[in-house]
Sequence to fold (205 residues):
Amino acid sequence: MSTDRSGLMMRVAEVEQAASLKGDVSASPLQRDLERGLRFAHVMMSINQLEGREGAIFARALAELLVGKGMLAQEELQTMMSQVRQRMEAQPAPKVMLARTEDKYGGEHTVLLDCASRIHICKAKCCALNFYLTDQDLDEGIVRWDYGRPYWIQKGEDGYCVHCDRGTWRCRVHSYRPYVCRAYDCRNDERIWLDFERMIPNPEL
Fold:
């Protein structure tokens, strides 16, 4: 527990340092401060989640100890656990999603496809898939994330990434695109293609 907490506290310091050195220069000071503040809040949320997990471990150990000593019936424990689980599932806790990957500019993982010849058919459906960003993306401050679901890629009302040009289906931040965009391979993804080589798309596109 102490190791996890220490690691997260180090990330708090890294967030503050990176925010002062990098970011979208076109963003207003208020926007940059808001993003830095949200990132700090989300790291602290992760710390609270870890501490909550420790509390759950303690409660489970105590329950097992009481059952083992005959002070609590197993059936009573199971009934109460079921009731508590239902209440907790009705109010799910928010979860911060942040991917950890190698350097996205490394190149070894980049998939090279002739997207230009197919994009009029697939309509860049890969840009409507869900994924979350990495520390590297956040530190650059260019790729936008969903403030309501940190740190998932931000989308428009049509379900497409906000960086996807709706007229050309091209990425407006292609040079800075996330790791997953570079490593994604649609050739065997049935959500996109029924037959990649023959350019037959999934009819549900």
Q: What stands out?
A: The helical segments are 2-21, 29-68, 74-90, 119-122, 135-140, 179-183. The radius of gyration is 22 Å. The longest strand covers residues 193-195. The chain has a mean pLDDT of 85.
